[in-house]
Amino acid sequence: MHGACRERQGLKKAGRRPHPGSCANRAGTIILPDMTDDTLSGTGPKTAGAAAGKPAADAPPEYAEQARKLEKIRKKLAKKQEKELLGTSRGIETMFRNASRANYQLIAFADNKASIMITVNGFILSVLMASIGSTFNHTPWLVLPSFSFMLTSIVSIFYSVLAAYPRVSEKKITIQDVRDMKPEANILFFGTSANMSEEDYLKVTEEMMKDQNFLYRTMAQDNRNLGKMLLRKFKMLSLAYRVFLFGLTITLVLAVSSYIANT
């Protein structure tokens, strides 16, 4: 037998663990190191430590270093995934926040435009009504243009008031209406919460806070309702400005033609 093999057997008889390398006899037969049943079954201390992501106590230094590196990589990947999920959630919330802010700013802008139209046309209407008596006596050719401008101001004020007119429903809202995502049942709108009982409102709010999908759908529905409100306001404002522009043009044409006809 080869000298290395004899040395190996001597170590085994002495109760010492031989080197885990293999040795061969002169005939070329390979003698493998002894392996216990625990090692073969994978339940030994080394395997259990590796499964837990930690190096075993009797593992070589290079194995322990590799295990520590793998554990660091695993923790980095977990933190990266958590940051990606957090970033996605923040992005969605930022999107809804910006959309809602823009809609409310446009609503304030539309109401301001309507207020300006009401003020201007109201002033014009009051001046014309105050001076219409003297107009009949001194400048009768201005009567027709004056009536045209008065009619223009009245119609323009009418559409401006419709643009600024708030629509609030007094219909009672139930929890099922909110769950069914009905357009008139959005708890982010004050009209809905005011038409619900306090118990139903608190219950559906708690459900919404627990269900992220329900929360995002409610926010999306609220933005859509704001968009529909804006569309109605700007349609009325557009009609008010068109009527004012068209009436002003007609009034000027009538004034010029009446002046030419009376000179």
Secondary structure blueprint with pairings:
Layout: H1 3-13, E1 23-24, E2 30-31, H2 37-41, H3 45-51, H4 61-138, H5 143-164, H6 175-179, H7 190-194, H8 198-210, H9 212-261
Antiparallel strand pairs: 1-2
- Report the end-to-end length measured between terminal Cα atoms: 141 Å
Strand content: under 5%
Uncertain segments are 1-5, 19-55
The string of secondary-structure elements, in order, is HEEHHHHHHHH
**Helix content, binned percent:** over 70%
* Average pLDDT, all residues: 77
Structural class: mainly alpha
Major sheet: order of its strands? 1-2
Account of the protein in words:
- The chain has helices spanning 3-13, 37-41, 45-51, 61-138, 143-164, 175-179, 190-194, 198-210, 212-261, and strands at residues 23-24, 30-31.
- The chain has 2 domains: 1-35, no CATH class; 102-261, no CATH class.
- A hairpin with a 5-residue loop joins strand 1 (23-24) and strand 2.
- The chain has a two-stranded antiparallel ribbon with strand order 1-2.
- By secondary structure, it is an all-alpha fold.
- The protein has 9 helices and 2 strands; from the N terminus they run αββαααααααα.
- Helix 4 packs antiparallel against helix 5, helix 5 (143-164) runs antiparallel to helix 9 (212-261) and helix 8 crosses helix 9 (212-261).
